[in-house]
Predict the 3D structure of the following.
Amino acid sequence: MTKILMVCLGNICRSPLAEGILRDKLSTEEFTIDSAGTGDYHIGDLPDQRSINVAKKYGVDITNQRGRQFSVTDFDVFDLIYVMDNSNFKNVVKLARNENDIAKVKLILNEVYPNQNYDVPDPYHDSDQGFENVFKMLDEATDVIQQKVTKI
């Protein structure tokens, strides 16, 4: 079983969307998909209502997710760790214990735009359109991830 973790800052906007979108695309018998935040602001919280709404619009249900904080043990549990932006990347890599841990961490948009190190913008302080834009970015990135991991 391949285990994939999506990470953003608070685990209520971007990473829950990425988790839900990818979970819809992959077999739960072969893949485990989860999400976490680098911060501890929203532990136990539902995703942001705007993330729930945009996901629902596209047939993705993320209402069973709850916020949790990334921990060092996630390096042991997950095969791939996708972060939403460069700040998340730095925060996750800071917790890495070795090169193997670091090798698991990838910027999600590098799947679509290799080596460009683009950020998925945090829509928290944005309008509904910001959430729509983020959904589309993550949908495209998870298409590429789906193709890659199903070829492994």
